[in-house]
Structure formats: C-alpha cells, structure tokens
Amino acid sequence: MKNEHVKLFTDTSIIINGLKSLLEKENINYRVKDNFESARLGGFGQPLASVELHVLENDLEKAEIVLAAYKEKINA
Prior knowledge:
Blueprint: E1 5-11, H1 13-25, E2 30-34, H2 35-42, E3 51-56, H3 60-74
Antiparallel strand pairs: 1-3, 2-3
Helix pairs in contact: 1-3
C-alpha cells in the first residue's frame, strides 16, 4: 500500500495552527499547503480559509478523531 498524504481539513491559518498543535501531541505527521499565502506572494487573491492540512493515509483515522474533537471545541 502506498502511503500518501490526503487532505484532512481546510480553514484559516489560525484554525489550522491549533489543529497542528493537537496532531503533534498525538504524533501524527502532517503537511500544510497555504494557498492563501502562496496567492498573496504571487500577487493574486485567495479566500482566507484556504489553508489545507494533509496527513498520511495511515494516520487518517486517528487524525479524524482529533479533528472532530477540535471542531467541537472551537464551535462551542
């Protein structure tokens, strides 16, 4: 099985930074694709909530549990 990164969540950089912290506590590796910052540097517009967080397929199930708890916390 090929272990590739898959998109877990997309939001603003502030929300993504909070999620990154929780994933690090669970030893889940991730990658961030900041489309907003890339567009800004290129002189283009992009919505603020366009920062993607990707995790390895093997960690997806565990990461989704962390994400669900995080969403519940920030939406409370």
